[in-house]
């Protein structure tokens, strides 16, 4: 918009240049207030319009910074912070994902608050309720524990504030517990199982016996169920499913049951430190010498923390940094992240970054923070860029249709640098991995 | 996996698990029995024992040095904690004692997180105790077998101190009636300091002994603190033999239940605690009427 003062009511010698500037100003003025005028036309809902009436908008972030998922939560938080920094500064990478972004979202600076969820739903809900009530958050995020994601789904729907889901592997998040106000970018039990099962069958053969280590909540149960269903098609059977509480201090009794089960493959669905500890103890009990380990829902940093135990192990993941050879946006992200934090991002950070970038794009597309308009922008199902190629969100369950990446732990001698933990086995396109939208009982609920 | 070999394996595993729980719980119970302070920072001290040992191990590469350093460091920490903070709370309500030890526990955990981050750290067992041993009926990690022996020796040592020395006699008398001990001219506060130090050392020792089994994180003590309380409640608050019995019972319950249905292992543990509280509110070996 022109910075020169222009008052139509005054008689002035108007030059062509001034006229052009004024014209530009008028057009700009006609467009910008239009969205403002539209905004005023919308009824108040959730934190709208109070949350977006100033020069900045607030985002509530809850990640686990303590407890068994703390390491993954910190990585996730870094992804969020980088995305916010990039959105506020109008970074090139954000512009590639959200072309209408200049600086901020609809010109408003993003501010945020961080709360430690400790991967506990009640703590996450309390923190986010505070962010919504006191800070008028226009968007909330959190996860790393599907129990948290499901709880925040419900909070978002009740409060009519958009929830952009963090790490969540449960089928329920966009299945039976899906909501109109929740969106998930990352892969989950069903897509992980659909992607990795054919690789496992090809690698290990048909009619194998599998033992499972399953954390006792929605994530664990749905991932294990999906793995069992897909592997059953090739005659795989389950010898034992060892269900354990989140943050179990010891896995010896479960592992003895596994060791005595006669399984060929150990499928470890545990996550965070639980995955690290159960894998280390599986080694101590000789289980890994007897059976092959598989991690169907990859755990960021598990390769580093288990000191070589992931070598040769197959895992499904959302993102592994070496795909940068194939995806230029991944390369841009890795470089920016590495420059700021000094290490290669894991998939928690990737999911965090992309889901914020997608949200920024949808708000820009909607031209308003009015939640139903933003939701409808997602529901258009447009093909949009991400760090793993083009993706889209399904209108029926708000799940992003995106590829799943199958990796295999590298032997130490093959590692080109200290963060080169995995070989990319296959990048499986997302479309073929998804269940039918209503297969898991999703009913999104109302817009208002 | 309900079959005879697995039952025997789980029975044995319960013993090993229980031995460790007994060691951690004994420190908690001695402190409570003598000082009347329920130390909610006990889990954090267990964790610090592991980290202090880890630091010593990284510098020396010696597991024995790590064990000594871990134990002594936490003992010193315990003594300082008693002198600076706890002694001001002996005559204050139990709620204040719970809050102050809970607060200290949080501070300890977060300081360790600040220094070491949440990433897990590994202290490998000594080379001669690495690998797996065949017991005929099961294969079991050699180090875990050794832990049973180490814990037995440590608990034996604690037993000797408590039941065969003058200090132990005073401590046990203090558990029964600290006012009487005081009026007999014994400096009961000095004894309190020593007891707190010994209790803390037991936690620190358990922390570093347990480190090769679990891999260290700042939250390692939080997870085990709950189990420790269950052990103490089952065995009898303030009872040293009760801590050992409670530890073994808890270990067996977790192991045996997991054989039938792993999802119920912890449910059964708490069910057992509830049962004990209903039938013997002061615990299996606790004394009725003790404050």
TrEMBL record, chain A:
CDD domains in the record, alphabetically?
PBP1_SBP-like
Asked if Transport is a keyword of the record, the answer is yes
Domain spans labelled Leucine-binding protein: 57-410
User: Can you name this protein?
Assistant: Substrate-binding protein
Originating species: Bradyrhizobium jicamae
Give the matching InterPro entries.
Answer: BCAA_transport, Leu-bd, Peripla_BP_I, TAT_signal
Entry similarity comment: Belongs to the leucine-binding protein family.
Q: Which SUPFAM superfamilies match?
A: Periplasmic binding protein-like I
Annotated keywords:
Amino-acid transport, Signal, Transport
The organism's place on the tree of life at top rank: Bacteria
Upper lineage ranks?
A: Bacteria, Pseudomonadati, Pseudomonadota, Alphaproteobacteria, Hyphomicrobiales
From TrEMBL, chain B:
Where in the cell is the protein located? Cell membrane
Enumerate the Pfam families for this protein.
Answer: BPD_transp_2
TM ranges are 12-33, 63-86, 98-116, 143-163, 188-209, 229-251, 263-283
- Membrane topology (UniProt): Multi-pass membrane protein
Q: Where does the source fall among the domains of life?
A: Bacteria
Keywords attached to this entry: Amino-acid transport, Cell membrane, Membrane, Transmembrane, Transmembrane helix, Transport
| InterPro entries cross-referenced by the UniProt entry | ABC_transp_permease (IPR001851), BCAA_transport_permease (IPR052157)
Would you identify the family this protein belongs to, as annotated? Belongs to the binding-protein-dependent transport system permease family. LivHM subfamily.
Q: What is this protein called?
A: Branched-chain amino acid ABC transporter permease
User: Which species is this UniProt entry from?
Assistant: Bradyrhizobium jicamae
Q: What is the lineage of its organism?
A: Bacteria, Pseudomonadati, Pseudomonadota, Alphaproteobacteria, Hyphomicrobiales
